[in-house]
Amino acid sequence: MSYRTGLILDFGGVLTTPLLPAVLAFEKREGLTEGACLTALYLNEKMTRRTHDLERGTISQSEWNLHAGKAIGVADDNLIGRIFADLRSEPAVIGAAAAARRAGVKVGVLSNSVGLHPWNLYDGYDLENLCDAVVISEHHRMRKPEPAIFELVLKMLELPAEACVFVDDTEQYLAPAVELGFAAVHAVKPEDTVDQLEALLGVSLREGPGCGL
What we know:
alpha/beta, five-stranded parallel beta sheet, 5 strands, 44% helix, globular
């Protein structure tokens, strides 16, 4: 078997704890019915378009907060930050990424942005120093699953898709990656993600402490 030599990870929901429990906790804090955010933000065509615009950096986080606050029926002040306030780092996957890099695997992060101001999802992770490539969608005016954004991170890593594994918690982004040649891992349970990565990369990913990614 030919092992992969590159690892490209989504950020939210992969290197962090899952997004859905954070959203549900936000709904509870705000006195909303369960599923209110899903209905207002993801089943609403206008808000879906605005979220895609946010990911591409064509509207600001503050603009998104304003529209989303009206759609949900809550205050818009730092809304993204409030929605994701319960996200924490995911040590099992972070440690696996660090172990892979120590073993010579090139590691990249490919993330659809939720805006960087006033709340920054990536604060405290020092991604630029801990990865070989970091692609945040809003910096490049494109978003997953557009092929060009996958091609950009491959160019930065100087690897072909056929040499890389792509990990994402959003299943709809995996098939486009596979079409380009990636091996794909759907991140659901961290332990299962690490098991799959060990099989694809051919290295132990549970050795020693994580790097704090």
